[in-house]
Every structure is written in structure tokens, then in C-alpha cells.
Amino acid sequence: MMRLERRTHVPLYLVVIAPLAAIFIALLLAAGLIAAAGVNPLTAYGEMLTGALGSRLSITEMLTRATPLIFTGLAAAVAFRARLWNIGGEGQFFVGALVTAWIGHSLGVPGWIGIPLLMLAGMAAGAALLAGPAYLRLRFGVDEVVTTLLLNFIVILFVGLMIEGPMRDPLAFGWPSSVPVDGDFRLPDLIPRTRLHIGLLFAIAAAGAVWLILARTVFGAETRAAGLNASAAAFAGISLPRTIMGVALLSGALAGLAGSVEVMGVTAGVTTTMSPGFGYAGIVVAMLAALHPAGVVAAAVFVATVFVGADAMSRATGVPSFIADVIVALCLLTMIVALLFTTYRVRR
Amino acid sequence: MSDAIDLLLNTSLWASVLRIATPLIFGVLGALLCERSGVLNLGIEGIMTMGAMSGWLAVYMGAPLLVGLMIAALCGAAMGLLHAMLTVPLGLSQHVSGLGITLFASALAYYLYRLLVEVGDLPPTIEAFQPLNVPGLSDIPILGPILFSQALPTYLALFAVAAMAYVLARTPLGLAIRMTGENPHAVEAQGLNPIRIRIGAVVAGSALMAVGGAFLTTTAFNSFFPGMVQGRGWICIALVVFASWRPGKALIGAVLFSFFDAYQLRLQTAIEGVPYQLFLMAPYVLSIVALVLVARRAEVPAALMAPYRRGER
Lengths: 348, 313
What we know:
The structure holds two protein chains of two kinds. Chain A has a single domain, classed as ABC transporter involved in vitamin B12 uptake, BtuC. The mean pLDDT of chain A is 92. Chain A is 72% helix and 2% strand. Chain A contains 13 helices and two strands. By secondary structure, chain A is an all-alpha fold. Chain B contains 13 helices and no strands. Chain B has helices spanning 2-8, 11-36, 44-60, 65-87, 94-116, 143-147, 152-170, 172-182, 184-189, 194-220, 232-242, 247-270, 276-295. In chain B, helix 3 (44-60) runs parallel beside helix 5 and helix 12 runs antiparallel to helix 13. The interface between A and B is large, with 45 and 45 residues.
């Protein structure tokens, strides 16, 4: 009879190997599905790598895609650490984007004042959206998983309402789009003549800031305590409601910032299709990173590589690009199993 | 405004309520069964998507409609088994595993659909379930078309409610499932295996969810397209709480919800000048409100979301 026994000490090599092993096994499993499409999996993975990392342009595209994923990954990591199940990253992304476009369209200040202001506005919108479910959990005991998930649908409908109504861009043709942010508030390019913008640096800075908050402040220690053992934390005199609400505001703000930066850096206006599931993919990013802020940056780059690479691979080989979603989802499942073996060991 | 009231008296509104409720009834029963045994199954949204795709695909490839439903159930059960293995013997976070299952099952469904089906300008269609008139009863004025002119899966859903209520409340198996959700250690002391009971409940519950998804592609519509489950799985998770984990109340919840959904659909065309998105939001807002109203007196299964490890508390 095998049984699991909690490790008293987690060796560092396991922390590094776990995500790599998880990704390897996920790619192995997805290879079966690629083979089913009549394509050699090695050829397909080769196309994916060159598609995402093969040229300067493709690398900048991949990093452009990774930028919002770093933010939403951080949002999920911060929340999950405290066992606040924020599945509403997608909705918070959209309110952040919407508020940024709304204010940024007609704000009459110079760019260097306006850009930080708009980022703050996006953060406030995301934080406010998650504060609702957090309040409902603390006050009435309503499970935040369901409320944050349902809010995603409500927000997307609201975005549709705004961009077809009050915020409609009269100059946009085809699909409805919101009015764009003023040119002064477009984020400067990081590399000229590519879509990569300085938002990437903001995202990396955010990861550093979150790491500092979690590792070096009292609030960070309180969130960890709340996540590990809520009743013990309460017994130690930590105010659980205050901690949970603080986590909610931070997590929502990060996801809102993702939307804000995406609008100022890439899309200028808001459309209902501007996110290919950044909020949901952020959950995978956070788990692959084992909820660690530094790991989030690496995991976001990996997930972005899969998505950008899969598009190129699909064009070259005809394998449906949904394989990217399959790979990413498989990574999440293999990663949680891998994490189990870093915290437990198998005993006979 | 009088239009809005006229709509309420329209038989076709009431006839559509049970039709809209059918996928929710299957889904909520499935979620309820999982949770009664102590396992939250957030894989539901993906499992319904998988059921919608696989059931449709089977019929598209020549299987009879009922066989399509069975294939959907099998595919759902397979996804449920995966969730069960991760959360019950391994004791992983039910939240994270469930979300992983939802992402995986929907991605796999879309991938296989694109791989196996030639999609032109319009998605290909199948011959869907048709309304089944119960002889004699369907001719009753008003009640006939509302209750007795539904498609076969709707009657199956109503039967499933009765069967679930009976099994849970009146059989040794039902008692074991409920006890596993309340106190798995007591189940172990009775000489039963809580691990097996949980795996079984999650597999069976997931099969029911998938049949709910298959209703969308084999009855409500006759084709499959990405995003068609549209949060119905999450609504079911909310309905389970609303129903205090009881099958009869779950039926009432699903019907109530569907009534509002059917009504808002008709109001969209009857009332002009209001953006249609506001009507579409109503069911989601309503679900949140319902959750808040019942949260205080919810009788949550005591061991819900608590992994069971032998000899560990």
C-alpha cells in the first residue's frame, strides 16, 4: 500500500524540475493529438518554436502576448496564495481596458501624467470589480468562484453594450470598437517598428513589486498565513477579512492593469475580442509558476510561446490552432500533479 | 408595458421554459451528485462542452440520436474520472483541478471538432430530436403543449430528477454517498470505501453534465459551435447552492431560472430602446442575487472540498 507523506523540507532542485517535467509530459500527451492530425509531432513542435522564437519579429510578438499574461498571472498568484479563488481575471481585464479607453479618449493632460493616471484608473476598476465578490464572501459567505465567473459574462456583455452605444467609435468600421485612447497615451515602443511596447517593463516591474510585497511586508506574511491555515492565522491575531479584502484589491488591480496596458500599448480601442482568454490563461501561468511572482514571468513567456507558436504551426501544417489551448490546459493538470510530488513523497 | 404582460400569458413562452431548463437540469443534477459526495466539480463547463461536441459528432457520423447521448455520457464520464483521480486519491485542490478540466475538456472538444469535421461557411447540421407528443395528454389545452409536447431528452431529465431524489434519499447507496460528503471517516468505519464512492459519484455526475451539454447540440440546436455552453455550467454550480443540494429544489431552481431566461429573450423584441445586452445580463445577475439570498442558510455538505486521506485529519 502506497501512501503520501508530507515533506518537511522541499529541495530546490525539485522546485525547478517540477514545472519542466510537467511541461514535458503535457507536450508528450499533446503529441498524440498532433499525430492524430497526420502530422509528425516533432515537425509541429519545431514549427511552433520557429513561429514564436525564430525571428526578431516573432520574438517581439511573443513578448507582446506575454505582457498581459504576466499581469493576469500575478493577479491569480496573489489571490490563490491566500486561497481567494479569483476566476474573474477576464472580467477585471475588460473593466480595466474599458475605463482606460473611456478616460483616455478625452483626458487633456500630457502623456507622462496621463499614462500613470490611466494605469491607476484601470487598477481601480479591476480592484473594484473583485471587491464585490470578496465582500459577498466575507459578509454573506457566498463562494467567490461562482460570483467571479458569472461576473466575467456580465462584464463582457457590458463591454458590448458600451462599445455599441455610448463609447462607440464612429470611425471604426466592421466590428464595433470603443473610441481609442488619445495618441499621447499610447505606450512607446520598446523596439521600433514592432508591436512590443514598454508595458513589458511595467509587467516585469509589477512582478518585482509583488514579490517584495509578498516576501518583505507584514501584509505578505499575513496573506501566506491566511492561505496556509485560515483558523490558525485568525488565532494568531491576523484579521482575516482585512487580509482577504487586501488580497482582492491587489489581485483585481493587477488584472485591471493588464487591460489598461493592453489598450494603451496595443489595441488603442476596446473590442469584445481583444482578449483571447488572458484572464483564464493567467490561472495556468500562476499555477505553472507555483504561485511565485518570479516564476510568473517565465511561465507567461512559455504560455505566450505556445499560443504564438501554435498559430504559425497551424498555418504551416494544418493542425488546428486549438492545440495551443489543449497544451496549456494539459500543463495546468500535469503541473498540479508535479506540485504534489514536491510537497509530498510517496512512501510504501 | 402591456406587451410585457401579454408575453407572460403566451403558451409558447411556457412551453420553451422546460426546453431551456433541460440542459440545466442535467447539469445541476450532475453537480449535485458530485458535491453530495464531497467533491466540487468545476469541470462542468468543459464537460458540458465535451458532451455537446461528442454527442453531436456521434450523430453526425451516423449514430442514432440516443446513442449520441450515450457517447456524450461516456466522454463526460472519462473527463469526470480524470477529475476524480486528481482530487480524490491524490487530494489535489478541487478548485484548480476543476478549472483545469474545464480548460482541457473545452479545448479538446474544439480541437477534435476542427480536426474531424469539415466546416464550410455554415456549421454542418444533424437531424435533431423532435418534440414528442404524448398521446391524449398533448391535446389538453394550454398544459398539453407546455408539459407534453417536449423532446425525449426533456422527459429523461425529469425522470432523472425523480431517480436522483429516490436514490439519494431512500437507498443504501444514496445514504453512503451523502455520508461520504458529510463525514468520510464515518463511512470508512462502516467498512465502506469513501475513495471509491467519491470516484463513482464524480464519474456518474460528470456523465449527467455531458448529457446536458449534448441536449444543446441534439435538441435545442442541430450543430456545434465554440462557446455554445455560454456559462450554463457555472449557472448549474450556482443552482446547486440555491437548491440546498436537493434534487427537487434543483428542478424548481432550473425551471425558475429558465423562465426568466425565456422571458428576457422575448422582452428583447417586445421592448424597444433598451440595449439587448441588459436583458442578456439579467440571468447572470439573478444567479448572483439568488446566491446571496440563500448563502446564509445554505446546508453545505460538511466534507465538501475536504480531501480524504486515510488516517489523516
